[in-house]
Amino acid sequence: MTEIVDKRAASQAPPSGRTYNEWAKNDTLEDYSLRYAPKSFRRWTPYVVATTALGGIAYLADFAIGGSIALSHGFSSAMVAILTAAVVIFLTGVPISYYSAKYSIDMDLLTRGAGFGYLGSTLTSVIYASFTFIFFALEGSIMAQALELGLHIPLAAGYIVCSLIILPLVVYGMTALSKMQVWTQPVWLVLMVAPFVSIAVQEPGKFSEFTHFAGDSPTGSTVSMLGVGAGAGVALSLIAQIGEQVDYLRFMPDKTPENGRRWWAAVLGAGPGWVVLGALKQIGGAFLAFYIAGSVGLGKANEPIQQYVHGFGTFAAPVALGLATFFVILSQVKINSTNAYSGSLSWSNFFSRLTHRHPGRVVYIFLNVGIALALMEGGVFGFLNTVLGFYSNVAIAWIGAVVADLVVNKPLKLSPSYIEFKRAHLHHFNPVGFGSMLVASAVSIAAYFEAFGAYGKAFSPFIALFLAMVLSPALAVLTKGRYYIARADDLAEPPLAADGTPSAVTLTCSVCATGFERPDMANCPFHHGAVCSLCCSLEKDCHDICKKAAAPGPVAVAPPVLRTAD
Q1: Which of 77, 172, 270, 360 could share a disulfide with 176, CB 3.0–4.6 Å?
Q2: pTM for the whole structure
């Protein structure tokens, strides 16, 4: 059967060319959503890239999450849970951020080459897209609560407003988002910390009272291992946030001796460093929930709009409601523009592989926002802990498998030393990462549904992380790394630039007749020339003849030519 398919593909005349619609051809709109981000496009400084990436963590779900954990499990368990989750998220975020910035690729392309294969990463695209629309819905719900309280807009109508207001910003991608995030960041930071400063000055004793807060915990304010596990599981749902961070970090300039320190500061600060501010916001949300619980009740104490109305009321009572409404709206615009943007990238990757069509990233903005709107109308905020607790099991299995490949398999030479993301060089599925994620997810989800008792449920995300980290190198050894690279990269490389980084020399795609830089190109026997990664992904008539003669073999431990500076 294989021989028949090969002959059919080889004998079929390749199409004369491919054209993309205006949305897909416009680099400002498209933001290289399915490709390597070329050197010529990465014109921003490390500071601007980092500020844009960190602007996306202005979300107030952290306040709701921290408040929910403290209300459910008390002060001590909440603090241990939040800090434990933060350490895990930071450590897993370091290698992902580094490789994304080094190779100028997004989370999906990184996942392909980190043990999942070309089609294996379609599942993770859905996992990641789920993260973006779940948190869009949670953040949109918070904004709608503010609109209801401050402007008396009904929740159902507020959900629609919260969705529509994001669309104009996200359409223009990094170009528009970088300006918006940089301009609004100082205002947002001042408003975020203002209530805490006011309370510290006027009621400093509240902070010591907070350490005795029991919430609804049956064990009071003392540490409960079940509470720590359950709380950390909710906080660990944010582990996929690193995907949104690297969606921006892929636009980092190449690292050179001149910008090395600034490059590392930006990558670490805006990559894994997001969780430092995230954990502080969760602790802040826990404190504000305690602070207002006596006034609004435990049921509403985790709502950020309530927290900030009372917080601003400590120093600006006459305008507290208006100020809180403005702050919530500003925060939600900043984060949901990132959620919608990252979701459009993920859906683009998913559908381009399944349908071999790409109408443009902009189309998938509407899909992602539409799903989020449906979740908002369905009342997703009321199931915050349940939704995030379940999701964290799948997300952490995915991230754990990717990290294991980057920090274990690559140093041990069980996988290639570089990241290969192009269809022309990848197997459809790689059991190393894909298999590890499936097994880890299945076991941890079973644990979440109490297959291993109460402690198994509470610590199910940690079970997922442990299994993924162990199974990935084990499967790499068993398969001898043969499913990473389907065929060698035999396309000629241009010389490096004078600073040792890849040059911006372009090659013309033989299908779409557009110039792209070398890392985005592959040699194609079907089209008898070089093709860009997107045309390669969308080709449905070649039947992968370029890989048919290359049987799985031992892993290649080095790329054909160094593609970027260390």
Answers
A1: 172
A2: 0.83
